[in-house]
Amino acid sequence: MSGDWITFDLGRLVDSFWSTTLDGLTLGAIYALVALGYTLVYGVLNLINFAHSEVFIAGAFAVVFVLSGLGFGPSAPHMSLGLLILDIALAMIAAMLVSAGTALVVERVAYKPLRDKGAPRLAFLISAIGMSFVIQYLFFVWRGPSAEPNRTMYRPKPIFDVFGVIINSQQLTIIIAAVVMMVCVDQLVRRTKLGRGIRAVAQDPDTATLMGVNKERIIMATFMIGGALAGAAAVFYVMRVPAGVFYMGGFILGIKAFAAAVLGGIGNIRGALLGGLLIGLIGNYGATVLGDSQWTDVVIFVVLVVVLMVRPNGILGSNLGKVRA
Amino acid sequence: MLSGCANSGGSSGGGEESGGAKNQLPAQDSIEVPQDAAKAAGDGKGKCESGTSIAYVGALTGPNAQLGINIVNGVQTALNEHNDANPDCKIELKKFDTEGDPAKATGPSAQAVKEDKIIGVVGLPFSGESKATGKIFEDAGLVHITPAATNPELTQNGWKTFFRGLGNDTVQGPALAKLTEKVGSSKVCLVQDDSDYGMGLAKQVKSALGDKLACEDKVTTGQKDFGPTAQKVTDAKADAVIYSGYYAEGAPFDNQLSNQGFEGVFIGPDGVKDTEFVKQAGSAASNAYYTCACVPGDLIKDFSDAYEKVSNGTAPGTYSVEGYDTATVLMAGIDSGIKDRKKLEEWVKDYDKPGYGKTYKWDDKGELTDKTVYGYKTDGDKIVSVGKID
């Protein structure tokens, strides 16, 4: 190996600061949506649902199947905007249903029986990892090792050009839609009856039950909300990476989303948003400064470790139960 | 089916779109084959013991299987021709599947060298797996000719049994740079993957590009999201991208490039030159050119006809001719009366005859002395030759 394997050049980042930032935010928005699933479940059950990455990829498969059925192919289709939005909405509904369904099945099959028996924490962790493999290899057996054929929804067009910074329609769609969804979830947990139930179970499941909260129903709802958000993330993921759907496709993304949840403060909804966007940005900045994309993951996880050394509970650090209405 | 019209743009958009490239290179419709090209049939007087075998060791399944299938069909074409023409010498073909994966290739290779009847091998196709298994063949004294592996370092290991049936990346790298010149590009981004092949080739390309290099990036095998890399290319305002790697990553990369608004040309080496690339990248692939130290077999009528009988009608692909030619070299040795591995190794070492594609003569390291590289481009959903790059 020659000595030029690492170069450090801030000038590169200055040159392409805005495009790197926008791309990082787009990626980060997708991480953040997936991170919410980890955070919600952790908040309620103190459990890392490692199968969440597979909940996500199940949604992505649903997106691909729906798009294929609607006639989308590897090239961007020629169709009216209204029809395109309708088609994407259909794909999103399907993905959210499939992901929410998968999350529910994971809960009922892998966690509920353990909960009923009062199993130790470690058992849940192993069960979660097991579920993750089961779903991965079900997809492997069913769909084979290679990626699903590329389904391009549309070819992004530049929309704004502000001082030479070009924002394209895809970046705009993903960032805005993801942020809107996250605000909705935040409000749902803060303001609705269901949200109050979720917070109550997160704070103290036994007391909540005594107060008449149906704990099992709240848990199921939590898994389904997290799942539905992962399904939405899957649509944006396929929008950005049309050829990225295969059995292992959720794995790395899931780990990064988990890292995002931890970075922001696991159990904290706003933390997941912050963590997701930060992970997206940090990865992109790191790759630009250090010269190539192979650095992305190195930088992300080094920063994660450093942040956790200073703030072991993540940046925002609180948990779901402490959120006040 | 809500919107039947969704895909009406289809992949038919190739051809007319010139992108940012200043020059369109015209497609070729025939190539010259040397009059005295060696054919697998030989003189029909070959004699050998029954059970004498050659083997193909390489990918038959896995993500890059198509390349292996192209080769093995070329080998099978040669074998059929040979056995039809030589009543007293029926050579057998044994196949060993490596999935093209260096980690999985050692098992099948060890199996192949264990079979005494196998005295010559076509394979292994990929650089990574060739590197991982060269010593196995060397220890067993079993001659093998790779029809596709192009990493230059493979011949630097002192292996006496390793021969390369095509020009290596010190030939292909400059050819890639040359191709950017031919299409009229002046600012080139070079993107490499993390394989032995991609990294080795990128090194050669980089030195050949000189100051036309506008940006560089490195990606990983299995990566799916190339957004940041595509961003880098458009930020650098490059008019050409050379992707040094395989089509599995090249296709989504080209797709995202064109989504990002990149209008230049996408140039890939032989690892990208595959109809799977065109299929997966969709209309984005219409901006793609390729280099390959392989001969366009579909332009050689005799060969193409014979091949299609073996492949059930599929036209010869990348390295089909090399599969045929290298198998022919081995079988000609067997016809000449050679019965053991050592003699066959010497036969290959001293071999000097033209084949369909090029002249097969090796230097003392096992490198082919003929350095032919062809250029190719996307045409609709096919890949067609644009002629030799020199």
Q: Largest interface, with Cβ-Cβ < 8 Å?
A: A-B, 51 and 47 residues
SSE order of chain B, one letter for each helix or strand: EHEHEHEEHEHEHEHEHEHHHEEEE
Name the beta content range of chain A.
under 5%
**How many beta strands in the DSSP annotation of chain A?**
2
The strand order across the widest sheet of chain A is 1-2
**Beta fraction of the residues of chain B?**
15-25%
What gross morphology of chain B would you assign? globular
Which value, in Å, is the CA radius of gyration of chain B?
Answer: 21 Å
Give the distance, in angstroms, between the N- and C-terminal Cα atoms of chain B: 50 Å
Helix coverage percent of chain B = 25-40%
What is the percent of helical residues of chain A?
Answer: over 70%
Low-confidence stretches of chain B: 1-19
Q: Write the CATH architecture name of the largest domain in chain B.
A: 3-Layer(aba) Sandwich
So what's the overall shape of chain A? globular
In short:
The complex is a heterodimer of chains A (325) and B (390). Chain A has 325 residues and is an all-alpha fold. In chain A, 71% of the residues lie in helices and 3% in strands.
Note the main attributes of this structure.
heterodimer, A: 325 residues, mainly alpha, two-stranded antiparallel ribbon, B: 390 residues, alpha/beta, Rossmann fold, seven-stranded mixed sheet, five-stranded parallel sheet, 11 helices, 14 strands, globular
Describe the structure.
- Chain A: It is a multi-pass membrane protein.
- Chain A: Keywords: Amino-acid transport, Cell inner membrane, Cell membrane, Membrane, Transmembrane, Transmembrane helix, Transport.
- Chain A: One of its GO terms (cellular component) is plasma membrane.
- The complex is a heterodimer of chains A (325) and B (390).
- With 325 residues, chain A is an all-alpha fold.
- Chain A is 71% helix and 3% strand.
- Chain A has one domain.
- Chain A has helices spanning 10-15, 17-45, 52-69, 81-116, 121-143, 169-191, 193-203, 205-210, 215-240, 249-264, 269-290, 296-310, and strands spanning 158-162, 165-168.
- The mean pLDDT of chain A is 89.
- Chain B has two domains: 53-168 and 297-361, 3-Layer(aba) Sandwich (Rossmann fold), CATH 3.40.50; 170-292, Rossmann fold, CATH 3.40.50.
- Helices cover 36% and strands 18% of the residues of chain B.
- Chain B has helices spanning 65-85, 102-114, 127-140, 169-182, 196-209, 227-235, 247-259, 275-281, 301-310, 320-335, 341-350, and strands spanning 53-58, 92-97, 118-123, 143-146, 162-164, 188-192, 213-218, 240-244, 265-268, 288-292, 352-354, 359-361, 374-379, 382-388.
- In chain B, strand 11 (352-354) and strand 12 (359-361) form a beta hairpin.
- In chain B, helix 1 crosses helix 9 and helix 2 (102-114) runs parallel beside helix 3 (127-140).
- The N and C termini of chain B lie far apart (50 Å).
- Chains A and B meet through helix 2, helix 4 and helix 11 of A and strand 7, helix 6, helix 7 and helix 8 of B.
